[in-house]
From TrEMBL, chains A, B, C:
Protein name: Enoyl-CoA hydratase domain-containing protein 3, mitochondrial
Domain of life: Eukaryota
Subcellular location, principal: mitochondrion
Keyword entries, A-Z: Fatty acid metabolism, Lipid metabolism, Mitochondrion, Transit peptide
Family statement: Belongs to the enoyl-CoA hydratase/isomerase family.
Record function comment: May play a role in fatty acid biosynthesis and insulin sensitivity.
NCBIfam families xref list: PRK08139.1
Signal sequence interval, chain numbering: none
Length: 304, 304, 304
């Protein structure tokens, strides 16, 4: 449904309308070539980038967008692709079909695959989740449907998450004898402990509204407005100074686990560093002169 | 009301219907014999266990289920009783009468009792609260009424908490000149800081809905549905693999205070260990073969 | 509006009615004399203290109550003024005009001022925020209007925050090229991570209801009831034992970042120490004797 909607938007030239300054960057795709066991195959993700917004779409709806090792590598590669380019301002991760992602591919977790392979799967998954946090641009999850297990972990790991009001979220590993311990890392840092534990112990889903109430989501909208609302947030971010956001994002995660005094020491230094950035002074000057700021690398969407 | 309801359920043979495989375990009771000052007396708690679900009922409604030293030891003993038995899958802590628990017995906190005794009271209380977290099975609080001070702490310390919509929660120690510092340990880890501080500084109660909104509860239902809803959650947990839940619960609390990288390292290893459990592979195989899993130690309620 | 309301209350002698035991303490004002660059000027804050309640009012509505260095020092001085006096039981920070505070004064953050001055601004700001937490009495933010950037940080840093339902909160620094990194320290500890990051990355405001839902506020009321409701909370706190609250507040913040076992060790010791306070035993005795406690230093409002 969402994917169809996206295709319609693209067909209408809405989202991908070429801006005057941001050259169209063709979709690139990854096949997870890093793994010895991974055969080349059809791409599991699709990407488009326009006006600073990179959309990465999980595109294996037949397999409920399972986060197989190949899918994880495809996602990782799509995130890392020219990640430090000034053209990239924000990433939106969405999915094709009614399931955002059902989590790990259980066929990869059988006894035959062995603990070495299992370890590779979980480590790669953890790397992708931590990459989202380490990345210099904000990452938004746009969820329309069911997100379970590592799929729920992916939502919890994004910086911002917008979901349709019919979406739901679960960590149902206990039903197949596999406690969602790695999803619990992200979930336990996103929602209150009692919410996380009931989800982990019972495997039962929570609604989008419950997920919003408890901090797993930033925003819930009717399905029909999901893309528009997500795009609105992404465009806003894309209109801002990339170096300023990169500095701020890194500082936020660095200070968060510190004691208050250390946190303020780090953050105060970040503020001073931020003011020393060209965009820092440009922003202040523009404000004092009551004009729009003109960032070092102007955002294509700044005029909208 | 709740206790009457429970008795009615039992009389009707509903809850305690004997399953074919889980032998009835008679209620056992504790009198807190460990303390030198504690006189043997009528049991302060009642317990029943059936189909993997142990119900521990605070049963001193005349004293508003005060967490006296004897009550704490009775509760501790009931939790620890054959806690590693494979027959035990989940614990539900509830209470008789309109007050879930009013917290410490202030008669035990007078100057006459002296600081040594005070220390014993608070240390025992802290042991019980930490025991709930360390226990290998999930612990659910089923609250119908008022939970204050250490009673509120008990709710906050359980893994899951289901409450009737007429329940309320407070840390009113300031009214008697005793700031709820130990309840604040559990409360401060369950709800946002501003909610915890307003409760601690003013002593005023919050409603069940507020407690749900802020993470102190997992679920709120009308009083008439409290037992059914709690039992539904407990039965779901009892139908799952005990070793899998034990592994997952321990890992969740171990990773939670760690930095993200360490947390993922621990949790990834837990996932690999989980897959090496017999129930881990049984669950995966059952899923791939589209059949119900048959855990090593089948749960009595799996058929329901 | 609020300020007008406050003046009306004062004119009517309502709030500042002299109690029999608490002598009227004249408003004092600060001009931030510590800074070499700060010129003496009209006071940026106003204060009144009565019946144990100190009201500090940001009083520079023409400048949207910007937290300039002078304003920060004025606020700091007003907080510290005889802060250990037994007459002071609780502080309420409010503001004159439709903007609670717009955060730092951007004129102080220009390149001309230089990094040394910038550092002084952010360090002073951090000192004030940490002072609120270290202070021995509770600090309440009473918000009627817009609180942005360091103004939002101030709300997040108070122990309790009551706001009118038309208030809103934002960290819009990204719009002027200055990521709200120091406000993020307080915000990131008050609300879920996804809420904080969306606010920080987009700069968009959240409503009072959203702020309440996510833990930034303790309480939201219609604007017409804001002062009454805040005063009710403040009076309740002022009626309690100052030493008990001071002990409890310090212990709460000391135990919060600790692991559970250390936290309980600290808090249990605090409980024993609390019981050894004269007011600790007075409270317990009063409760057991079914009478009102009479704290060592009776609160003027205890009769209300």
């Amino acid at each position: 449904m969402m994917a169809a909607g996206l295709r319609a938007l693209w067909a209408a030239g809405h989202w991908l309308r070429l801006g005057p300054r941001a050259p169209f960057i063709a979709g690139f795709s990854s096949r997870g070539t890093a793994g010895a066991r991974t055969e080349p195959g059809p791409s599991l993700t699709r990407t488009r980038q326009q006006d600073g917004i990179r959309n990465i779409i999980l595109s294996n709806p037949q397999k409920r967008n399972a986060l197989s090792l190949a899918m994880l590598r495809s996602l990782q590669s799509d995130i890392l692709h020219e990640a430090e380019s000034q053209e990239l301002k924000v990433i939106v991760i969405s999915a094709e079909g009614p399931v955002f992602s059902s989590g790990h591919d259980l066929k990869e977790l059988t006894e035959e695959q062995g603990p070495g392979y299992h370890t590779e799967v979980f480590q790669t998954c953890a790397e992708v989740m931590m990459l989202i946090q380490r990345l210099s641009v904000p990452v938004i999850a746009m969820v329309n449907g069911l997100a379970t297990a590592a799929g729920c972990q992916l939502v919890a790991s994004c910086d911002i998450a917008v979901a349709s009001d019919t979406s739901s979220f679960a960590t149902p590993g206990v039903n197949v004898g596999l406690f969602c311990s790695t999803p619990g890392v992200a979930l336990g840092r996103a929602v209150p402990r009692k919410v996380a534990l009931e989800m982990l112990f019972t495997g039962e889903p929570i609604s989008a509204q419950e997920a919003l109430r408890h901090g797993l989501l930033s925003r819930v909208v009717p399905a029909a407005q999901l893309e528009e609302e997500t795009l609105r947030v992404a465009r806003k971010i894309a209109s801002l100074s990339r170096p300023v956001l990169a500095l701020g994002k890194a500082a936020f995660f660095r200070q968060l686990p510190q004691d208050l005094s250390t946190a303020y020491h780090l953050a105060s230094q970040t503020m001073v560093d931020n003011l020393a950035l060209p965009d820092g002074q440009e922003g202040i000057q523009a404000f004092l002169q009551k004009r729009k700021p003109s960032w070092c690398r102007p955002a294509a969407l700044a005029e909208e």
